[in-house]
Specification:
Blueprint (H helix, E strand, L loop, with lengths): L3 E5 L5 E3 L5 E3 L4 H13 L3 E6 L14 H4 L3 H15 L3 E2 L10 E4 L13 H12 L3 E5 L22 E2 L4 H7 L9 H7 L3 E2 L9 E4 L2 E4 L5 H12 L2
Parallel strand pairs: 1-4, 1-6, 4-5, 6-7, 7-11, 8-9
Antiparallel strand pairs: 2-3, 10-11
Family: Belongs to the peptidase C56 family. HSP31-like subfamily.
Organism: Lentzea fradiae
Keywords: Hydrolase, Lyase, Protease, Stress response
C-alpha cells in the first residue's frame, strides 16, 4: 500500500455572497495542520494539490484564539511550515490517483466556492471511491464531495452517511445569512445521510471508506480514524 496521502485544498480566496458582498476566505489552519501532523507521525508522506496548483491564503479567523481555540497559533505555524516545505502545490489535473492511499479534503469556506463543482476533483473522487480508497472530508470539506458525479449523472456519495459543518454552526459563525447555499442542508437534499453533533464539538462519521468530520475540532479524530482504517 502507498504511504502517501493527498490533501486537496480549495484555491478560493473570496466567497461571493447573495447581497453582492465579498467574504475573504482561505484554508482553516487546524483542518490542514491536525491531519497533516497525524499522518506524518504515522509515517505517511503528505502531498498537496488544488485547482490550478493555486495556494489559497490562510483564513485569518483560524489564527484567532478567540475563534479557533488555544492551539490556533500552533496550527497556523504547522500548516504554514508544511505548505512552505512542500513547495508549489500540484495541479489537480496532474494528480495520479495511483500514487495515494487516501485523499483528504479540509475546509474553510473555499470548497463551497470551487471544489464542489471541480471536474478534475470529481474524476479523482469517483475513481477513488470505486477503488475503495480512503476518503476524508472535514467541516466545509464535504462540499467537495459534491463534485463526484459519474458518467450517468449520479452523485456517487448519495445515500452515504456523513458529517459536515452544520447549518446551526453556520448561523452561529455569522455566515448563514446571504450564503448562496448552506452545506449540511444541501448534502441532505442531494441524498446524503447527514448527521450532526453539538455545535463546535468533535463529531466524526465513518461509512465504509468515507470518513467525515463536522468542524475544525473533528480534524484530528477524523485523521486518526483514517489512519486506523489504512492499517486494517
Amino acid at each position: 500500500m502507498s504511504k502517501k496521502i493527498l490533501i486537496v485544498m480549495s484555491a478560493a480566496d473570496t466567497w461571493e455572497r447573495t447581497d453582492g458582498s465579498k467574504y475573504p476566505t482561505g484554508y482553516w489552519a487546524e483542518e490542514v495542520a491536525a491531519p497533516h501532523e497525524k499522518f506524518a507521525e504515522a509515517g505517511f508522506t503528505v502531498d498537496f494539490a488544488s485547482p490550478g496548483g493555486v495556494l489559497q491564503p490562510l483564513d485569518r479567523h483560524s489564527a484567532d484564539p478567540e475563534i479557533a481555540g488555544p492551539d490556533a497559533a500552533h496550527h497556523v505555524e504547522h500548516a504554514e511550515r508544511a505548505l512552505r516545505e512542500f513547495g508549489p502545490l500540484f495541479k489537480l489535473e496532474d494528480v495520479d490517483l495511483g500514487d495515494y492511499a487516501a485523499i483528504v479534503l479540509p475546509g474553510g469556506h473555499g470548497p463551497v466556492v470551487d471544489l464542489h463543482q471541480d471536474a478534475d476533483l470529481g474524476r479523482l473522487l469517483v475513481e477513488a471511491d470505486a477503488q475503495g480508497k480512503v476518503i476524508g472530508a472535514v467541516c466545509h470539506g464535504p462540499a467537495a464531495l459534491l463534485s463526484a458525479v459519474d458518467t450517468s449523472g449520479r452523485w456517487v456519495f448519495e445515500g452515504r452517511k456523513m458529517a459536515a459543518f452544520t447549518d446551526e454552526e453556520e448561523q452561529l459563525f455569522g455566515t448563514a445569512d446571504n450564503a448562496p447555499w448552506l452545506l449540511a442542508g444541501t448534502l441532505r437534499e442531494k441524498g446524503a445521510l447527514h448527521s450532526g453533533g453539538p455545535a463546535y464539538q468533535a463529531y466524526t462519521v465513518r461509512d465504509g471508506n468515507l470518513f467525515t468530520g463536522q468542524n475544525p475540532a473533528s480534524s484530528a479524530p477524523m485523521a486518526e480514524a483514517m489512519i486506523a482504517a489504512l492499517a486494517e
